[in-house]
Amino acid sequence: MSLTVDIAHPLAGFDLNVAFEAPEGVTALFGRSGAGKTTVINAVAGLLKPERGRILLGGETLFDATTRVNLPVHRRRLGYVFQDGRLFPHLSVKQNLMYGRRFAPRGAKGPDLAEVADLLGLSTLLERRPGALSGGEKQRVAIGRALLSRPRLLLMDEPLAALDAARKDEILPYLERLRDRAGLPILYVSHSVAEVARLATSVVVLEAGQVVRAGPAEQVLSDPGMVHQIGLREAGAVLTARIAAHHGDGLSELQVSGGRLFLPHLDQPVGAQTRVRILAQDVMLATEAPRGVSALNILEGEVVTLRDGSGPGAIVQLRCGGDLLLSRITRRSAEVLRLAPGTRIFAVVKTVSIARSDVGAG
């Protein structure tokens, strides 16, 4: 089951014109506020009729301006999760969840109440009312309600935007479980790089209604050409790792394609796959293997590309094993090190510079 979007629609200030594919997993629509993300997701949901183009889901036409096909919302079989949970305050958690079951087509396959409650950690909350839930718990109920409608596609429009940092950290592991276990495509709207890095398997970057980059998350986020859209302080790369060991001094050892990383202890078993986001500003470079330094993480690789950043800065893209990294340094440092594509380089990353929120399930 995959989603194909190729639509155009006039908006205030610019014309929306986007085309992309959303395969199974989480496809993040990323961009600044006003880029057109919510317009796209509303067009997929059937809440907005584009002026031109078509939308396909699993080969079925949801919308086609040429043939005048425009399936109504209830026939598209999509689940929609908004910024706020929009729960019924007079119903219990269980009753809110089962409300979604009313919209499931007869005979449609999907998880039952017990499976959804287990997946989203709601089993002990079923008799509570929404007023007794935290913001993160309310969003988990809203997601569960959408899942119980047995959708073919899940739409999520900035579901964490209204939550504080603590509540976001609470719900992100459940969204990772949803991504890995639900077995359906998820179109996820966000302007948060941290959320996209944790959750997305593919990314579509929008700017003023246009797709400026689309592809696997690891490739898009490590593209130096995307630094302008992502922001200098948020620019970085995502590495896939496997937990190799937990050490008695409180560190976890991770195996990546280019070597190993040491991070503060992770609550995941040995052998588990995980994702690590490393910010460009936290990566130092050396042309010789560093000795006598406190940093434990040293990955050998080579320079792929070198781009000027804003002011005196430069963005260097590195390949370490099969992974791509970004490093933000000054142009003066790049000149002193004589960096150029193909230069052998060592990337140095402090263990404590990687935030716990930047490590998630693979």
Automatic annotation (TrEMBL):
Matching PROSITE patterns: ABC_TRANSPORTER_1, ABC_TRANSPORTER_2, MOP
Segments forming a coiled coil: none
Top-rank taxon, per record: Bacteria
Sequence ranges assigned to domain Mop in this UniProt record: 292-358
Entry keyword Translocase: yes
Keyword Translocase among UniProt keywords: yes
GO molecular function: ATP binding
Domain called ABC transporter: residue spans: 2-233
Keyword vocabulary terms for this entry: ATP-binding, Cell inner membrane, Cell membrane, Membrane, Molybdenum, Nucleotide-binding, Translocase, Transport
InterPro entries: AAA+_ATPase (IPR003593), ABC_transporter-like_ATP-bd (IPR003439), ABC_transporter-like_CS (IPR017871), Mo/tungstate-bd_C_term_dom (IPR008995), ModC_ABC_ATP-bd (IPR011868), Molybdenum_import_ModC (IPR050334), Mop_domain (IPR004606), P-loop_NTPase (IPR027417)
UniProt signal peptide: none
Protein name (database record): Molybdenum ABC transporter ATP-binding protein
Species assigned in the record: Pseudodonghicola flavimaris
Organism placement in taxonomy: Bacteria, Pseudomonadati, Pseudomonadota, Alphaproteobacteria, Rhodobacterales
